[in-house]
Description:
32% of the residues lie in helices and 23% in strands. Strand 6 (104-109) and strand 7 form a beta hairpin. The protein has helices at 37-45, 61-76, 91-96, 122-132, and strands at 9-10, 32-33, 51-56, 81-86, 101-102, 104-109, 112-118. It is globular, with a radius of gyration of 14 Å. It is built from four helices and seven strands, in the order ββαβαβαβββα. The longest helix has 16 residues, at 61-76. It is α/β, with parallel strands linked by helices. The strands form two sheets. Strands 2-4-3-6-7 form a five-stranded mixed beta sheet. Strands 1-5 form a two-stranded parallel sheet. The protein has a single domain (32-132), classed as Glutaredoxin (3-Layer(aba) Sandwich), CATH 3.40.30.10. The model is unreliable at 1-10 and 12-28 (pLDDT under 50).
Amino acid sequence: MLTSTFVIIGCGFEGGASGKRGHGPGSSMVVRHVEDAKQFQNLLSQTEQLVVVMYSAEWCSNCRMIRPHFYNLSEQLTNIVFVEVDVDDAEPLARSAGITCMPTFHFFRRSARMGEFSGTKREKLERLLDELQ
């Protein structure tokens, strides 16, 4: 029997606060969580605003560093839809998106990918959000 292994590595490093998804400072009900391709496609096709997707995992230290900032941005930039995809909960979706390291951010408008970057550079995330709004 053939089995496949989905390996994802952490990308980039920049100092910052740590936090867990949905807990403590930086947690927010504004960030949507998507677990499958159908839910993901429905969200993209029904949303006119810019959508930013963070592919992450609980065990990823770089993801824990940028997550509080991502959640804070979701509360500040209410004209943008923020989505988090846990690669362990949504492995087929992450694989089809070509995710090879985390955190990776994809930016969509009307289902079309407008940009992407991997890493924890807050300034780059903010700049891309500003440019693509």
